[in-house]
Structure formats: C-alpha cells, structure tokens
Amino acid sequence: MRMRGFRDRADVAEVLGLLAARLESLPEESIPLQEAAGRVLVADVVSDLAVPGFERAAMDGYALRGSETFGAGAYNPLEFEVVGEALPGQPFTDALRAAQAVRIMTGAPLPAGADAVLQAEAAQETSGRLHVTDAVAPGRNVGHCGEDIKAGEVILQAGRALRPQDLGVLASVGTAAVQVVRRPSVAVFVTGNELLPAGSRPEGYRIVDSNSIMLQALVGRDGGVTKVSQALADVRAEVRAALASSDADMLLISGGSSVGKEDLAPGVLAELGELSFHGMALRPASPAGVGFLMHRPVFLLPGNPVSCLCAYDFFAGPALRKLGGRSMDWPYRSCTLPLSRKIVSEVGRVDYVRVQIRDDQVEPLATSGAAILSSTTRADGFVIVPRDSEGYPPAEKVKVFLYD
Hints:
With 404 residues, the protein is of the alpha+beta class.
C-alpha cells in the first residue's frame, strides 16, 4: 500500500461498532469525596437515612400550634407566651403547651408540640408576649423529615459523572468516599522530524507541534489523564520502542499514520499488536487507523491538525469515554438550524464540515483544508454528513454540534 493510497476505506460505523464491542469500563476504585468531582459512579448510591432527619423551621419566625392562630387578624390579635428560643443545632428542649410560642431561626429543630412557623412579620413580640395578627396553617413554613431525601432512596445512579451539587448531596447523607471508575491513562505520541516542541516559535521549514497540546486537552475533557506526552522522530526503532514500552490504558499516535515513506506507525502497530482498521471513509482524517496492543486501544491520528481533531472525536474520544465509564455519544451540545448555502459531499464517506452560525443560519466555512487548524477556532461547530448522503441543499435544517 505504501505511496499508493488506500485500496479500501473502513466505514465509520463499523469502526465504532468494533470499539463498542471490544472495550469495557476500567476497574473501580474508592476515592475521598473531596476528590470525586467529574468522576463516574460505579454503582447506584442509596441513602440509608432521611434528609433532613427532623422537622425544622423553613424561615425565621415563631414556632407554635397552627390551629391556635385561626381567627387572628389586625382587629383581633391573638396572644401567645414566648417561652424560649430555637437555633440551628440548639433546639428548645421542652414541649410547647397551649398558647405558647418559641422564637425560631431557619434550620432550627421544631419544638415538640409545635406544628407550624409563623413568619416574624405576621406578629409582634413585646415583653415576652406575642401578638399574632395573621393565621398560619399547621405544617406551614416547616421543613419535614425526609422531604429532601428519603431513607432507602436512590440519590445518584451508576454511570453518573459527578457534578459539584452531586458531591453536596453525597456529603449530606454522610458519604466519606465513593466508588468510581478508574480514570483511563493515555500516552500521547507525536511523530515528525519537522516538529518543534510546543511553546517554540516556527523557524525555517520546521513547524511547532500543536497536536499534543490539543490532544491532552481533549483527553482531560473526556475524563482521562495524560500519562506521557512525547515527541518521536520518524525512526522506526524509536516509534517501536515507545509503543512497546507504554503501559497506558490507551495510546494516541499523531502523525506517521498514512502510507508515505515516513508513515511508520501502522507497520509498527501491526507488528506489535493488531492493526484493525487503516484508512477511513471519512473526510478529513481518512488516513486514521485503529488497533490494539495487548487489548489496549491504539489510535493512529493524522498529523494535519483538523484531521487529528476529527479522528480523535470520531474514534479515540468515544473509546476513552467508554473506558472511563461514560457514554460514547458526542460530548457536544447541539442545535438544529437551516443552512445558508449548500453542503456538497460524496456518497460512501462521512464528512465533518466546520460551520459558523450567523443570523440563526448555518454557514459552511469556505476553508476546508485539513491543515487549517484556525478554521476550528473560527467555527462555532460542525455538521456531520452521513455516508449515504450527497450533502444538504440551502435552507435544509441540519444538526450542528457546538464546540463550546
């Protein structure tokens, strides 16, 4: 195949089907709750207690028996004896008797014998006597036991990526540690004699590596952790040593993925493990490849930056998310809007078309080159044209995946 192109190109759906069938979530681990943000739950979390665990005041005011306030009004104030105070964590310990009230603050336990909280502005306290001018029904302004969480309730389900508010709920039921899927480790290798390290300035005929920085950010977005990021020369022994020595859960190789003289990665992967697919019915990113090394997925990503991003999003991203217990679905928000002008595609391949949104219409970017990374920063998102379509006419409503 060298220097003669790809005889056959793999269907995108077939590649994704292989990944879904071959990959499983990584083993679980227990971590402190404070470190669990963004991590994926292994199992449902069931609360063994109620929250709140007691009746409490839902606002500042006076705890009393609601039925005793019936008939109160501006011209018929009712009088109660104020016998004490309840604060959060400091309850009034006696039981209320008839015509008694307790000054109470939000969150404080409701005293025994009380069943309502009268808001402060509906009464006036003078010398230990409370003059009530508004009725309050029993149960009003009271936070009831278990109204937030009931004992035995499933509060979070397996597979959930934990958000800050989820950690708060877990803390409220006394959780100290959680069982989560281990974060997948990823090795990022970037090949090319022409590359300078990220952070350098271009010089002569050499260009700065941008793919490693982009890939590390994508790995973090999808729940992985970059274990190593290494630049490799276009030397077979060096590429082979890097792949053979890596113990990461997933390997990404950017550059050297096609059929040219210095495209070494496909042959090395085939020698060390399994080259499942090489050459995709996808534009851009047709030179991408997918394989396995000791059951660990390996992705050959084109060196052109847009192709690299496209291949990652189509193949490596879903695989990484599955290893980490997440959904393989696209991680982007989407919207549906009409096209301002047509998109032309070719039956038999999937097209990844960068677009802008202008005046509630979708405008395909004129620049389509796989090396023009800035086109992805000018774009608001992308449209996917399926392999059985020749594109879309103007005004056709299309689904846009948004980069933000």
